[in-house]
Amino acid sequence: MKKTLLATAALAIALAAPAAAQTTLKFVPQADLRILDTAWTTAAITRNHGYLVYEPLFSYDSKNEPKPQAVESWTASADGLTWTFKMRPGMTFSNGTPITAKDAAASLERWSKRKASGTTMRARMAAITVKDDATFEITFKERFGLVLETLSDAIQPTFVLRAEDAAADPFQQIQFKEVIGSGPFTFVSEEWVPGSKAVYKKNTNYKPRPEAPDGFWGGKTAKLDRVEWIYIPDPNTQVQALIRGEVDVVEIPAVDLLPLLKRAPGVKVQVMDQMGSQGFFMLNAKAEPFDKPEIRQALAHVVDQAQFLTATIGDRAYEKPCQSIMACGSPNESSAGAAAFAKADVAKAKELLAKAGYNREPIVLLDPTDQHILHQMAVVMAQLMRDAGFNVDLQANDWSAVVTRSARGDKPGPGSPGWHLHPTWAPARVVGSPLTATQLRAPCNTTTFVPAPCDQELEARKARFFAAATPADRKAAMDSLQERFYQIMPYVVTGQFLAPKAWRDNVTGVVNASEFVRGFNSLVHRDLGASEGVENLLR
Fold first, then answer.
1. pLDDT tens sequence across 480-509
2. Which of 70, 208, 450, 522 could covalently link to 55 via disulfide, CB atoms 3.0 to 4.6 Å apart?
3. What is the phi-psi region of residue 266: left when phi exceeds 0, alpha when psi lies from -120 to 50, beta otherwise?
4. DSSP letters of 437-491?
5. How far apart, in Å, are the Cα atoms of 151 and each of 115, 147, 375?
């Protein structure tokens, strides 16, 4: 009997077994699920949770073309200032209540105030208006050519929540007592044990699209009865559990354990996205001394990407040094402004520290010890910084604690949750565009905590990129934007890498798609000795 999963590729959903037996798939996610509010955080684990329990308004297909998901149809006025959207008929939330345009509009309002691509579009919007139960409208103050691309954002999806949930302050985390969703699975709140397990069951009220699944888009027919996310922070324990058949999938196995997995009977290992992911360090430019660009540039000068990747990944087959902030292999790849940072220059780093008046103030570096790649990044960066003269306070946390701390604006110091930098990573396809690269921002006059520096020039160059009318104009704008990036250094890129997935060989039907989502994507699990008959998991 086959089950289905969604494993890091493009949201693919599994068709599965005969209705006779209860089908359960056990999945080891890349992090512990602690936050359920998909608009409040950029954490991949929360986004992957969202893909199971919510339906986005639009999604990308396998060709990266925007397609309607919860929306049935849309029209745009000749001047491009009015966009009208009609919702799919017959959709209901997991509690059986109808999904209306009011829910979609409220969800879009909250999302557009919080997410990077949403705020870009919102700056040009005039209003979101509900016309009737099935129809809502977006009007613009000026023409914006990326409406559908923005609504289809796979890394910051436009999930549809109930209007009463979406009415919450987007800058305050929703503490859900019960998740009423619009997607193919329901979240079993009473079985959620943070630090241990999260459970999802098939949503019997979900109405899928009629089309076959294609990338993130299409019909998501959940024929798997139950999905269990089993949080196992230790990489060795993850791998042994997979080899023994105690779990079905490990989302991100440690690279140094891949040879063991490749030799193990009954296990498959595969890279699903050849563009890979980009590693980088988020910097808190609101905390001294990182408020000085010279300090941030000094940090960048301690990194030699080839050496850094060797130390953190340890297998050249999975390492891709890349100085382009928009990721190598993306349409927006650029080398502008990067030459000075291509190799480590400790002497230059020390010079910049002296110029900025750095006086050995403690620098708080958050170390996500339950994420093996990020943990290695933190340990390596700490040593490189110390070699250059930084006084590093390396603080061990689990990833969920890092996510929570990094959203706060506390001043670093003894007993404070404040911070200066932490490692993270994102799919290269996501950081391949200024529209979806959440970390590429430098807003001024914000009323909420944003760790990025205030730099009106960077924001102006981003605006010129969005306004570019031709490929040549876009290329010139991207080069200009990257040059400004290296002048102010809002974050530090450490290179691209590939992250193979591992699963039992009784899991079949894996879709080899672009890795936007690092969670579930389209796997089918078949119990040994069970009857044939299922074709996919979600979708």
1. 999 999 999 999 999 999 989 999 988 776
2. 70
3. left
4. -TT----SS-SS---SPP-HHHHHHHHHHHH--SHHHHHHHHHHHHHHHHHH-SE
5. 11, 6, 33
Judge whether residue 366 has pLDDT over 90. Answer: yes
Task: Assess whether pLDDT exceeds 90 at residue 428.
Answer: no
Q: Are 358 and 291 in contact (CB under 8 A)?
A: no
Other CB atoms within 10 A of residue 316 CB: 10
Sequence-distant (≥ 6) Cβ neighbours of residue 131 within 8 angstroms: 84, 101, 137
For the cut 90, the answer to whether the pLDDT of residue 521 exceeds it is: no
Which residue carries 């910097």 as its tokens? 283
pTM of the model: 0.82
- What single letter denotes the amino acid at residue 317? A
- Which region, left, alpha or beta, applies to residue 354 given φ > 0 means left and ψ of -120 to 50 means alpha? alpha
Q: Helix, strand, coil: what percent of the chain each, to 5?
A: 30, 20, 50
Tokens of 196: 């241990």
Say which range, 349-353, 375-379, 438-442, 515-519, has the weakest mean pLDDT: 515-519
CB-count exposure of residue 468 (10 Å: 0-12, 13-18, 19+): middle
Tokens of 354: 């002296």
Structure tokens at 484: 């400004």
Distance CA 53, CA 201 (A): 9
Place of tokens 């030699």: 304
Instruction: Please name the amino acid found at residue 135.
Output: T
Please say whether the beta carbons of 218 and 209 come within 8 A: yes
- In 3D space, the residue among 113, 110, 28, 10 whose CA is nearest the CA of residue 64 turns out to be 10
Say if residues 486 and 340 touch (Cβ distance below 8 Å).
Answer: yes
The answer for 96, left when phi > 0, alpha when psi is -120 to 50, beta otherwise, is: left
Tokens standing for residue 65: 């073309």
Place of tokens 């019909």: 219
Mean pLDDT, to the nearest integer, of 217-237? 90
- Phi/psi-derived region of residue 245, left when phi > 0, alpha when psi is between -120 and 50, beta in every other case: left
Give yes or no for residue 185 having a pLDDT over 90.
yes
Q: Which of 23-37, 75-89, 443-457 has the lowest mean pLDDT?
A: 443-457
